[in-house]
Amino acid sequence: MNSRNYKYALLLVAAVSITAAGAMSQAYAQQVEDGMDGYVKGTSGIYTGNPNECWYEEDGSMLPCKIDTGDTAWMLTATSLVLFMSPGVGFFYGGLARSKNIVNVLGMTLIVMGLMSVQWVLWGYSLAFGGIDSDANLFMGNLDYVGFNMVSPYAPLGEAGACGDTWSAAYQMNAMVEGDVCSQGWPGTVPHQLFAMFQATFAIITPVLIIGGLIDRIKFSALVIFVLLWGTFVYDPIAHWVWGGGYIGGGSIDLDPDLSPSYALDFAGGTVVHISSGFAALAGALVLGRRLGYGKVPMEPHNIPMVVLGAGILWFGWFGFNAGSEVMVDGITVSAWTVTNTATGMAAVTWVLMSWAHTGKPSVVGAASGAVAGLVAITPASGWVGPMAAIIIGIAAGTICYAAIAFKSARKWDDALDVWGVHGMGGLTGAILTGTLASPHIWDTGDGIGAWTGTAEGMEQQAISIIGAAISIGYAFGVTIVILKVMDAVWPGGIRVTPKEEEIGLDLAQHGERAYVNE
Alpha-carbon distance 213 to 434, whole Å? Predict the structure, then answer.
């Protein structure tokens, strides 16, 4: 190992050691005397004391409110499906990459999964979903949940009340036992910790998506630090704005308080996941610069079967992504599953037809890319639109994302695996069309009034959706550039690999390993 790499390795070992020491110190502090580990003295031993969770007193002990075992089983499945999507991205990207860099692509995928899994438990969840104690918390959550403190695996979120009075009771076949206590809020049928881990899988896959704009060029060691910084200063704040009651989702951009819409609609992450990752990938590609030989030497996908496999895994896992975002099982869950599949199929067909007309041949890689574009675009709308609107969104995704990639190529932006074109522009398309096509006929509450209704509420919803998307684009793109520029200035030798390493391939140069050994 040369001296520079040896120093990098020592820095990473030091960082892990410091993190471990911090975790150990907190674990030492979590004694049964002070309640920091979710134990409050004089109770049953599992009471967290979290006022946002649903607990009730019985015979002097604090007990968790009832959870729905069916909803909990589904959400454990949905959480696993979304986690499975990240290796799917790795295969999709790995097949699109050149053979000399596939180990690096898969390695970056795995390390991001590991890093964000830990970051989310230590501080990410708290920043994204921590409470709002002041106006400052409209932009970032508080630190109540650091180290998953007060995040119960038993109790749901919400206020206690009679089980028969809950909103979810209308959809449940199981008879409620008289006297049972249930959460009256959402997501009140599953444990708080399960909700937090479902959200963890979103925090994991978002920076995984960014990898596609950085491949062949970024040092593995630099990626490690970038992911932690990006997750903390980009993903966590945007997630808080949209889903944690912050700036976008908490009513701060309500244009007319007299009308019902007060926040941008993002059911499963069109803004939080795809706009943020897509525009961050474009920022990364611009900061790193073009790959050696870009536009001059062939850089076609090295393994198309792997691309199709990755797209298939994503299509499969995305049902957990979208249908799981209802965080219970009801008609919205079924509707989200239906429109997800419909839009994806339509987008795949549209992309193939576009490529067929453009090049004279139906592209299989294009079909896979089109399917992913459809999955991306339907994500924010999946809880608000019906099947016919899903077809419109699928057509729009296939057309707009295809055109965006053509535009990118004409501009010679080296977003290597088209993260901006598919995820950034697909997410933007979906966010705008959610405001256009959202239907009050999907929810029994009449929620989700899109511009297609021709009402003042619908027009306001459209405007709020556009404003929310624009804020997220500007923030993700701008902060990503700042993070990478600062890192490039302070990182020894910069964050980009040397030309020699790039020519050899990052598999050997960064990892000393090859994907394919023919001996």
Answer: 26
- pTM equals 0.93
Whether 81 has a pLDDT exceeding 90, the answer reads: yes
Tokens of 346: 């339509």
What is the C-alpha to C-alpha distance for residues 165 and 182, in angstroms, rounded to an integer?
9
In 19-55, which positions are buried (b, 16+ CB within 10 angstroms) versus exposed (e)?
eeeeeeeeeeebeeeebbbbbbeebbebbbebebbbb
What backbone phi and psi angles, to 5 degrees, belong to 391? -65, -40
256-300 pLDDT, tens digit per residue, is: 999 988 899 999 999 999 999 999 999 999 999 999 999 999 899
Place of tokens 């991001």: 112
DSSP code at position 65 = P
Q: Where do the H-state alpha helices sit in 324-424?
A: 331-359, 364-378, 387-411, 419
Mean per-residue pLDDT for 222-248? 96
How many angstroms separate the CA atoms of 241 and 139, rounded? Answer: 6
Angle at 126 between CA 192 and CA 151, to 5 degrees: 30
Question: How many residues does the structure list for the chain?
Answer: 519
pLDDT the model gives residue 60: 78
Residue 494's Cβ-count burial label (10 Å; 0-12, 13-18, 19+) is middle
Q: Is 500 exposed, middle or buried (0-12, 13-18, 19+ CB in 10 A)?
A: exposed
What tens digit of pLDDT does each residue of 318-347 get? 999 999 999 999 999 999 999 999 999 999
- Amino acid (1-letter code) at residue 257: P
